[in-house]
Write a structure and sequence with these properties.
The chain has 377 residues and is mostly helical. 52% of the residues lie in helices and 3% in strands. Strand 2 and strand 3 form a beta hairpin. 55% of the residues are buried.
């Protein structure tokens, strides 16, 4: 894959290059091989247009090149300096647009704030590699603004569009997931707080989001779970229509949400919050009814994402209840590794599966920091 498609972290060569960078860091592959993949990912003109975000274009390439530098080397120093200047200007433009939208009172969109292509993802990149400009605090202030209700009582991250083309939500919805919703906002603000990066109102915003998740938590027979999103009728009467938990996944479902809540507990030094989140994740990972739906290989909504999320959560957990489920999940990784051949992508295919399997095999945090693009660390 070359050109514009190559610079996609989700589905292009940029995502596949992350795997080869991680392998080069640990010595199981040469840096020459990793460089070949990086060259292919950057073979075309790299876009910093307004549709670019963490998973596409200049921010994706910046993430990739910084991952190659994670060992403290000077690799790609000059191109990083150039690409990061484009990322800063992109972030400034996107923030101006988002502020104007909010000031006008229009609903937000995924593109404005989410992890894949919005300000949450751009902030996640800037948090790891802070620019000289003060754009990161400004983005944090905007994301905090989204945690306040709008003038008509809707959550600030409410979107008027559907979550999916085949799943209409007339009147819009409030997304709860890590990729496009409140869990992503919560994880970012919590990670920033833990790293000592905070602006006025950040602790309160984390608490507001936690209260939102408390409000919509469903206490099922096998443990707590959360819906993928809240529709206008559900918000109006405070009653959920979804009959049971969605499939366990990083992007939607209990694993991603529970990790975000665990990070919030750690950020606020709230032991009770942390333990509740860890209980929810452990319960999900021992529920056969939920695990039956874990059929895909990928990071987004497959076993790779659940494993990597659970592995990170287990390292921070106060008990071994999550870590005790990792061998079972590792077995699922091995089974999918035999059959996942055609799709080499990061989010849904073999690259993400191989990276999670790499974590399983080495039992050390990724040297490249690749999983920071999932907001689980």
């Amino acid at each position: 894959m070359t050109g514009l498609g190559a610079q996609s972290l989700a589905n292009g060569t940029a995502g596949m290059a992350l795997l080869h960078i991680e392998r080069a860091h640990v010595g199981t592959e040469s840096w020459y091989s990793a460089h070949t993949w990086i060259k292919q990912a950057t073979s075309g003109e790299i876009t910093s247009a307004d549709h670019a975000g963490l998973y596409y274009g200049a921010p994706a390439v910046s993430f990739l090149l910084h991952a190659a530098q994670a060992d403290g080397s000077e690799r790609y120093r000059r191109p990083i300096k150039t690409i990061d200047s484009y990322v800063t200007r992109l972030a400034e433009r996107r923030l101006i647009q988002a502020t104007a939208r909010a000031d006008h009172g229009d609903p937000a969109t995924f593109h404005e704030y989410d992890l894949f292509y919005g300000l949450t993802g751009i902030a996640a990149l800037l948090l790891r590699h802070p620019p000289d400009a003060d754009i990161l605090p400004a983005i944090l202030r905007h994301l905090i603004r989204l945690t306040h209700p709008t003038s008509d009582g809707l959550p600030g991250w409410w979107v008027a569009h559907d979550p999916d083309r085949i799943k209409p939500t007339p009147g819009g919805h409030a997304n709860l997931g890590m990729a496009h919703g409140a869990a992503g906002l919560l994880a970012l603000l919590s990670i920033a707080t833990r790293q000592g990066v905070a602006v006025d109102g950040q602790f309160e915003a984390i608490d507001r989001l936690c209260v939102w998740f408390d409000q919509w938590r469903q206490d099922g027979r096998t443990g707590p779970w959360w819906p993928q999103w809240i529709t206008l009728p559900e918000l109006a009467d405070g009653r959920l229509r979804q009959p049971g938990p969605p499939r366990p996944s990083w992007c939607y479902g209990t694993p991603g949400i529970a990790r975000a809540l665990q990070l919030a507990g750690l950020a606020l030094d709230d032991t009770s919050r942390q333990q509740q989140a860890e209980h929810a994740l452990a319960a999900c990972l021992t529920d056969p009814a939920q695990l039956r739906h874990l059929t895909g290989p990928g990071l987004c909504h497959g076993v790779a994402g659940v494993y990597q999320t659970a592995w990170r959560a287990a390292r921070d957990a106060r008990t071994r209840s999550i870590s005790e489920r990792l061998p079972f999940l590792a077995g699922l990784l091995d089974r999918h590794a035999v059959t996942t051949k055609n799709d080499g992508s990061l989010l849904n295919g073999a690259a993400g599966l191989a990276l999670a399997s790499h974590t399983s095999a080495h039992q050390t945090p990724p040297h490249s920091g690749w999983d920071s693009c999932l907001l689980i660390t």
